[in-house]
Amino acid sequence: MILRYKNVFILTLFLVISVFSVNAHAARSSVSIMTPRNTVKHLSEENYSYGYTYLPGDALDAYETIYRKVSWPVNYDFLDKRLLRPISVVYVDYVPQCVRNCVSNILSNLREPNNVINNMLVARPLDSGISLSRFAINSTIGVLGCFDVAESFSLENKKMTFGTVLGKWGVQQGGYLVIPGLGVTTYREYIGTYIDDMMFLHHFIPWWQIAILAGIEAVDTRAEMLQYDDLLSNSLDPYSQMRDFYLLNAEKQVSGKIEMAPVEEATPEDLESFMDEIDE
Questions:
Q1: Is there a contact between 187 and 173 (Cβ–Cβ < 8 Å)?
Q2: CB of 176 within 8 A of CB of 166?
Q3: C or N: which end of the chain has fewer Cβ atoms within 10 Å?
């Protein structure tokens, strides 16, 4: 419960900041009811992104400067490099693969009730039934989910988070967030995660057990991401790389495909200007 209220407080703080930012942008408008029709038409065609770039899912990284200077160094340079990654490396190196598979399967099985409800919310009763069957089979024959017995019956995992449900309902990503200690998310995904946690087993087990479970899940997830470390560390801009990967994956869960923004071909004038900058 304490962790949940802490997360709600952090999200509320970000929402308050966003409201003030939106109000500041809105104050720039001088349109009134007496504005000529042609002027209103002109203003309706203007771009009011104020220099920001819309990302996959119409996410908006409005506080990128703050995130790069504060949140990203805390999460990536300190917490991940000095705490989470070393623990994950030890976990992979010294814990047998069969044990790690068991842990991953148990964590996945605990989320099956969410899949049952969320699949129903997007009108997928078959997937909802499969998720219910998986939970029943793996929780019993599979020894509390340690073994994915249901997969041997061709009952594949039908993962569906509430964040994905919101996306399928037409809700856009909203603001992109980099929260110290919590990682990257968006308004939509954060709300979805909160709703999923409400449907989880929080009402039946003590908060300290939830904290332990969250820690195990964080290490297990980070261990699976170790294979991508070189891709991120060798990137010219790890911040943008992480942001794009996260948003593209979230949108892939919604649409089932990855939509890349169109790339404009460079003109001879652009190349000449680029070469001039190099010569300076």
A1: yes
A2: no
A3: C
Q: Which residues lie across from 225 on neighbouring strands? A: none
What is the per-residue pLDDT across 219-256, written as a single tens digit (0 to 9) for each?
A: 999 999 999 999 888 889 999 999 999 999 999 999 87
| Cα 177 from Cα 60, distance rounded (Å) | 9
Q: Retrieve residue 43's tokens.
A: 């203003």
- Closest listed residue to residue 248, CA positions, set 186, 162, 170: 186
Round to whole Å and give the CA distance between 50 and 228.
34
How would you class 94 by CB atoms within 10 Å of its CB: exposed for 0-12, middle for 13-18, buried for 19 or more? exposed
pLDDT digits (tens, 9 = 90+) for 183-214: 999 999 999 999 998 877 666 778 888 889 88
Query: CA 154, CA 157: separation in Å to the nearest integer?
Result: 10
Question: If you compute the radius of gyration of the chain from its CA atoms, what whole number of angstroms results?
Answer: 23
pTM, to two decimals: 0.73
Q: Which of 218, 217, 227 shows the shortest CA–CA distance to 84? A: 218
> Angle CA(249)–CA(174)–CA(14) in degrees, nearest 5?
115
Cα–chain-centroid distance for residue 265? Answer: 30
Per DSSP, the three-state class of 90 is helix
Evaluate whether 115 touches 145 at the Cβ level (below 8 Å). Answer: no
Rounded-to-integer distance, Cα 158 and Cα 170, Å: 20
Q: Please, what is the Cα angle at 102 between 228 and 199, to 5 degrees?
A: 85
